[in-house]
Amino acid sequence: MDTDQAQGANVGTKVIRANQFILEDETGKDRARLAVSKGGPALGLFDENGKPRAILILDKDGPSLILTDDNGKGRAMLAVGKAGPGLALYDENEKVIWSQP
After folding, report:
1. How far is Cα 83 from Cα 32, in angstroms, rounded to an integer?
2. Per-residue pLDDT tens for 47-57?
3. Which of 60, 57, 59, 95 is nearest to 74 (CA)?
């Protein structure tokens, strides 16, 4: 029991601990997944066909957000690393078509 619980600060709240949470739609398809791996936490959001559409990752290099197309291919990435922020856009073959810096 932590100090806050001992003092009653969390009365009525519940804590759930896990390495992964999966949210399903009414048909049982994964629509969101929150997981922690050796690299760090990640949140994935999936469309109605189960394709990843947005992925938020936090690893030792910093946070990054990847947005994907209808085929699940990465088309845009926003990241903040040790060297600063960066933005990259990709074509349908996931080749960089524009990036800064």
Report:
1. 30
2. 999 999 999 99
3. 95
Phi-psi region of 55 (alpha: psi -120 to 50; beta: other; left: phi over 0): beta
pLDDT band at 101 (very low <50, low <70, confident <90, very high): very high
Q: Which residues contact 53 (CB under 8 A, 6 or more apart)?
A: 45, 46, 47, 67, 68, 72
Domain 17-100, second-level architecture: Alpha-Beta Complex (3.90)
Cα 17 from chain centre: 18
Residue 78 carries which side chain, given as an amino acid letter?
L
Tokens 């088309």 sit at which residue? 75
